[in-house]
Amino acid sequence: MLTEREVYQTAIEMLHRAETTLPKDVTRALRRALRTEQNPISKLQLELMLKNLEIARKLDAPICQDTGTFTFFVRIGRKLILNFDLREVITRAVAEATKKIPLRVNVVDPITRKPMSSNTGKEQPTIHIELTDGNEFQMDLLVRGSGAENCGRLFMLGPTEGLNGIKQAVIATLNEAGGKPCPPTIVGVGIGGSMETACLEAKRALLRPLDKKNPDPILAKLEREIEVAANRLNIGAAGLGGKNTVLGVKIEKAASHTASLAVAIAMQCWVARRASAKLVNGKLRLVRS
User: pLDDT category, 288, cuts 50, 70, 90?
Assistant: First the structure.
C-alpha cells in the first residue's frame, strides 16, 4: 500500500530536484543553442546560463531566485486505495520544502498582497488529479516563475482560423513577450476544449521532454513550424537578440465545440523545472530526467 509518508517525502524530493537540477534534455538543448548561436551577446548569456546550472549543482541551491509556484499532475489507478488526503499531504510537502531547500516565499493573497510564508494557500499548490485504470500512481511536477506565468495567453479563435490562426497566435504572443519570460523558452500550446481545458493542456504539454516527438504527425509538424518561425523573431537569449528564442514547442489538444477554437499558450523560461515520480513494484520512485 502507498503510504502517506512515502508520498510526502517523494514530493519534497521532487521539489528539491526540480529547483536545483534541470532535466538532461533541457541542458542538452541549451548546449545545442550555444553551439549554434552567432550573436556574441546572446552567446555570452547562454554561457552564463550553463555556468549558473553548474554552480547550483555544486551548491545544491535553487537555479533561479524566483523559485516559482507549483503545479502537480497526479494519475491514480482506481484499484489503488489511499487512506490519506492526497492534497493535504502534497501541500504539507510544499510547506516543508519551502523551509528545507529553502525556497523564496512567492505566494501572496491576491488582494492584500500579504505573503504566505509556507508558499501554500487556496489553490496553492495547484493539484490536478486524474483517475486511471489499475494500480497506477504517478506524480508530475511543473515549477514556473512569474516571468513565464505572466506571459501566458488564451485566444478564443474562430473555428475557421485553423492551423494558420494557431501559428499566428503563438508567434504574436512570443513577439509581445520579448525577453520577459527569460528566453530561450519552451512553449506549451493547448488547442481545443474549453477555456480552462486549453490552458490545462498547454501546461501539461510542458511536461513532455524536448527530445520526445509528438505522436500526432499533424501536431509534430505544427510544433516544428512554430519553432522555426519563433527562432526567426531575433529575440534570442535573455531577449538580447539571436537565433535561439525557443528551445522547443510542445502541443496538446482536446476535442472542442464545433463553433470554438480555443488556443492557450503557456511559457516556460530557460530554467525549465520539472520532476516526476512513479509507483514501480510497490515503491514510489523519482523518474530519471
Answer: confident
Lookup result for grid cell 489503488? 80
> Cell 510526502 sits at which residue?
8
Cα distances (angstroms) measured from residue 90 to each of 35, 99, 115, 140, 143? 40, 15, 20, 12, 14
| 162 CB-contact burial (10 Å; exposed 0-12 / middle 13-18 / buried 19+) | exposed
Q: What are the residue boundaries of the structural domains of the chain, listed by start?
A: 4-21+63-145+273-286, 146-268
Q: Cell 541542458 maps to which residue?
A: 27
Per DSSP, the chain holds a count of helices (H) and strands (E) of 8, 9
Q: Is the bond into 125 cis (omega within 30 degrees of 0)?
A: yes
Percent of the chain scoring above 90 in pLDDT: 98
Contact 21, 64 (CB under 8 A): no
pLDDT exceeds 90 at position 32: yes
Topology adopted by domain 4-21+63-145+273-286: Dihydrodipicolinate Reductase; domain 2 (3.30.360)
How far is residue 181 from each of residues 47, 136, 176, 209, measured CA to CA in Å?
18, 35, 11, 19
